[in-house]
Amino acid sequence: xxxxxxxxxxxxxxxxxxxxxxxxxxxxxxxxxxxxxxxxxxxxxxxxxxxxxxxxxxxxxxxxxxxxxxxxxxxxxxxxxxxxxxxxxxxxxxxxxxxxxxxxxxxxxxxxxxxxxxxxxxxxxxxxxxxxxxxxxxxxxxxxxxxxxxxxxxxxxxxxxxxxxxxxxxxxxxxxxxxx
Length: 180
Fold this sequence. Notes:
Largest sheet: 2 strands, antiparallel
Strand order of the largest sheet: 1-2
Number of strands: 2
Radius of gyration: 26 Å
């Protein structure tokens, strides 16, 4: 029941807040305009927070990428004896190990599937906050595994297991947080 009345001292008519807002908006156009303006302000603030959080996660994943590329430079390239012009291959392969472990496809496959977006973006620009968090963790784990001399196939299986586990935990926590 959305409306109730109570007689006597301290009595009156009481309504659920949604009903009260609708009634007040009906009574006063000024109040309705205030309500709409305030709602829009709150949504703008909420969006700013989400953007800041996403930017922070993207920053972390970029920084951890430097840790991973350092491990590739020190531990993979010297053993493979790549020529100077082919060093990028090792970096690309390591990035794709992480992309496949987390997203299920390589950067090249994403670019081929999204040619217009690929002109100015990469797959990681469209990752969720949870995916960026896991990606940041994977880059750090991969650097440690490379330093330990673990081969690519074993690293991939470990990284995929880590990605699946961490993403499921973060997504489940997000569901619980969203419950009323």
